[in-house]
Amino acid sequence: MESFSSKDMAMQAQKKILSHMANKSVVHMFIDDTSSEILDELYRVSKEYSGNRSEAQKVVKDLIKIAVKIGVLFRHNRFNPEELSLAQDFKKKLHQGAMTAISFYEVEFTFDKTVMSEILTGCRDLLLKLVDSHLTPKSHGRIKHVFNHYSDPELLTKLYNPDGPFKPNLTKICTGLNRLLEEGTL
User: Fold this and answer.
1) Pfam families given for it (predicted)?
2) pLDDT tens sequence across 115-132
């Protein structure tokens, strides 16, 4: 017997369409201004660090696609109770990461690349478990691409260098993270 569900079909169509529209104008429809500003700074850091504009665009585009797809899954109540528990664990880990990032920024000489890298790697692993049965291997690759890029200890060290070129970017990223924390968004 064929199992057809228009609700499933609509969700798949949304995920597919949204993944093809991950550009700046569409992002503003789904992501608030503060998050968009953080994404812009992450792009600038990635572009400067890698020296490769297209790689920086790909990392941020992958990040946006993943965020949108997970949002679609949540909106369609696709996660079971165990997965919702994983989602809460992910949210806590992400919150911890934001707090740690801000703390390292505000208190000079406290930055520890291992701690920051481990938090981001932990976020990656929780997110992969959460979407394991919902997203394709290609999407799993996107998650790994994003988190592996931003958890790179060398990138983190350059980002947190108090005399480095990324100081203005880090300031804007942490200001945005602080705003998201205050609003309860993160």
Assistant:
1) TNFAIP8
2) 999 999 999 999 999 999
